[in-house]
Amino acid sequence: MELRLAAILMVLLCSATDATAWxxxxxxxxxxxxxxxxxxxxxxxxxxIDGGGKDPRGAKLxxxxxxxxxxxxxxxxxxxxxxxxASCADxxxxxxxxxxxxxxxxxxxxxxxxxxxxxxxxxxxxxRSDMVHCRKRLxxxxxxxxxxxxxxxxxLCHQLQAEAFKHSTERLVNNLSSxxxxxxxxxxxxxxxxxxxxxxxxxxxxxxxxIAAQTDNLTAASKAIGDQxxxxxxxxxxxxxxxxxxxxxxxxxxxxxxxxxxxxxxxMAMVEESYRSLGDGMDRLKEGAxxxxxxxxxxxxxxxxxxWTVLQQTGRRHWERRPAxxxxxxxxxxxxxxxxxxxxxxxxxxxxxxxxxx
Length: 358
What we know:
Helix content is 78%, strand content 0%. By secondary structure, it is mainly alpha-helical. The longest helix has 155 residues, at 140-294.
C-alpha cells in the first residue's frame, strides 16, 4: 500500500504546475487557503514549511509594507506597493527589465516616503523617460532615500518570492496529501471489491466443480441406466421368444382340443350304438325268457347263463371303451354314464340269475 501511495504522489508531483507561479505575487501573501477536505468530510492537517521566508530584514520590510497597504486603498503606499508586487514577477524573471522596473517602483516608494515624512514628493518622472534624467533632478537627501528603497525593492521581491514559493509548496503538498488520502481510500475500496470479486470467483469455481461432479455422476448414472436398458431389452427379447413358444403351444393345445372333441363325439356315438345293442339284447332276452316259461326249462336254463354272461361282458366292454376322463368339461356326464352302466350291469346279473333259477 505504501509503495502505491508513493508512486501516486510522485506522478502528481511530476504533473503539477510550477510551484513558483508569479501570479501569486499579485495577491496578499498573508491570506491562507482553508484546510483541504476529503470527500468524507475529514479535515487534513496543513503542511507547513518552517522557516520559509524568514529573513529578518525581509520579514520586517514585508510587515511594514503590509501595514502601509492596510492603512487605506487610496493612500500612496497602497498604489506603490501594489505596482511593486505586480511587477516583482517581471523583475525577478528578466534581468534586462530588472533594473528599469526596480528603479521605477523605488521611485514611487521614495515619493510616498517623502510625502509620509512631511517632505515634498519627488518630481514626476514619465514612464517613457530615462531614469538617469529623472535622478538628476533629485537632491542629495532624495537620492539617499531613492537608494535605500532600491535595496528595499529587491529585498521585498525576494521575500515575496520566498513566501509565494512557501505558500505554493504548502498548498501543493496539501493538495497532494488530500489526493493521496482520496487515492488511498479509493485503493482500499478497490482492494475490498477485489477481495469480494476473488471470493465470488472462488464461489463460482466451487459451483463449477460441483456441477462437474454432478455431471460425472449423471454420466455414470446414464451409463448404468443404459446397461440396465440393455438387460431389459435382452429380457424383453427372451419374453418375446417365450411368448411365441406359448402361442405355438396354445395352437397345439387348440389342435389337441379339437382332436379330443372329435374323439369324444366318436365315443358318444359308440356309447349310443352300445346302448342300442344292449336294448336289442334286452328285448331278445325277454322274448327268450317268455318262451322258456311256456316250454321246457331244462335246456333253456342251461343255455341262459352263457347269453347273460355275454350281455354282461358286452356292457363292461362298452364301459371300458369310454373316452379318457381328462376331458374335464365332460366329467359330470361320464360319471352319470358310469352309474347307469353299473346299474345295467347289476340288472343284467339279476335278470340272468332270476331267469336261470326259473
